[in-house]
């Protein structure tokens, strides 16, 4: 292209208005492209969403959002101003509760474990060594603003006083984290091989198979949580405002049912065709290959695409979540006396044991031969011994509940396949009611006495809810199962390969393009995908 000649505008379609799709759209628009986002749901944000009911605001996805050197720099880079407050975290086991207000609280947590498990002090000390090492790595990763979102060369004082001094520690942490693929469960076998309940207390609020560097460094990440005033759903709305300002379009309730890469056209459920020059798939990757019509492509390319689709289809999706939304006739001060606004709580130190591993697999394998009472018995135990993630929005922003009342969001990790089996068996509504009831019973018998009598109303969202709303395989909330080797990059050093697919001019981003994934990674993959598309169409990233 001749100097001084502007590159042509290309039409980029983005499927999925979650955090990755919204981030990519903003940067593509700023890079001079024509961008349209197509979203199946009625609302944008994907899992990052909030809803209002009778004066209570509930967050449906993450309880807070990790900055990770990404969130604040991204907002500043795009000129988005939205107030963020610290997402304060507490962690409790039975009567022991630790408030993570600084890095020193990791020592308080280890001391609490020693009081709960007095016969395992040596094992806890060994676990603490690992946690402190991985927490140091996480601290380095969180301290450095990601250079993809901040032009450090244009800010020389920042470059020389903050960025360059931090880079050696940052790069060493990236290297150490990338080299360690061991799961948290396996990492605990050496220091505490005979302490099943102790190991459960350390691991069961994470996804099965979570890499040890991520899980054991997470206590440092507690210091890095941010909460958008008004609810987490305000974050995607702020991004959509920037997209609108840049000239982009977002079409909700637009479900794509067919992708024809030979004609470079998408087809939605209403029969509307959407032509594109480049396509970014920011939704479930399995759903892309299910909707793909490779007719018209060269046979060799069709074969390659088929192989890739089978590879994704053979790998299990990650765990999902069951969430209970409660409006409670109780002042926020009652809950503030027990925890911060983000609370990870285990009612009983016994732990889940085999309930979420061998017992669950056996339950699913013989599901048709199990009685309802047997299945409900397993469910009751699962809710009784599990670890809850609880959010109290009014402790983060007092305007998120009516005066003198409090909203609670309590969730448990769940296997989405089990919910699918129950739905196929025809008693899904009964199962949901039972699950909600067992959760309330467990919380009432432990941290919130008298809770049930104070409930004004309740609602739930199950793995089936996520499947139906977002077309995600088994309602998985972080993409692929971490118990298996994911079919996408799972090291920070492989991040720049996340956008590529074998389909011509089709790119990918989001929770299904990197593992393990969360909101910061979704944002990061969206930016990396925008960068790849702009390079492909010959534009310049600005």
Major sheet: 7 strands, mixed
Number of domains: 3
Number of strands: 20
Morphology call: globular
| Residues in helices, as a percent range | 40-55%
Fold-level CATH name of the largest domain: FAD/NAD(P)-binding domain
The strands making up the biggest β-sheet line up spatially as: 8-7-16-17-18-15-19
Unreliable spans are 1-5
Percent of residues in beta strands: 15-25%
Mean pLDDT, all residues: 91
Please render the helix and strand layout as text:
Elements: E1 11-15, H1 19-30, E2 34-38, E3 50-53, E4 56-59, E5 65-66, H2 71-77, E6 84-86, E7 89-93, E8 96-100, H3 105-116, H4 121-143, H5 156-179, H6 184-189, H7 196-203, H8 212-216, H9 218-221, E9 225-228, H10 234-246, E10 249-251, E11 256-260, E12 265-268, E13 273-275, E14 278-281, H11 285-291, H12 299-313, E15 320-328, H13 332-336, E16 342-346, H14 358-365, H15 372-385, E17 388-391, H16 393-396, E18 406-414, H17 416-425, H18 428-444, E19 455-461, H19 463-470, E20 506-508, H20 519-536
How would you describe this structure to a colleague?
The chain contains 20 helices and 20 strands. By secondary structure, the protein is an alpha/beta fold. The strands form five sheets. The protein has a seven-stranded mixed β-sheet, sandwiched between helices. A five-stranded parallel β-sheet has the order 10-2-1-14-20, covered by helices on one side. Strands 5-9-6 form a three-stranded antiparallel β-sheet, with no helix packed on it. Helix 1 (19-30) runs parallel beside helix 20, helix 3 (105-116) packs antiparallel against helix 4 (121-143) and helix 11 (285-291) crosses helix 12. Mean pLDDT is 91; it is low at 1-5.
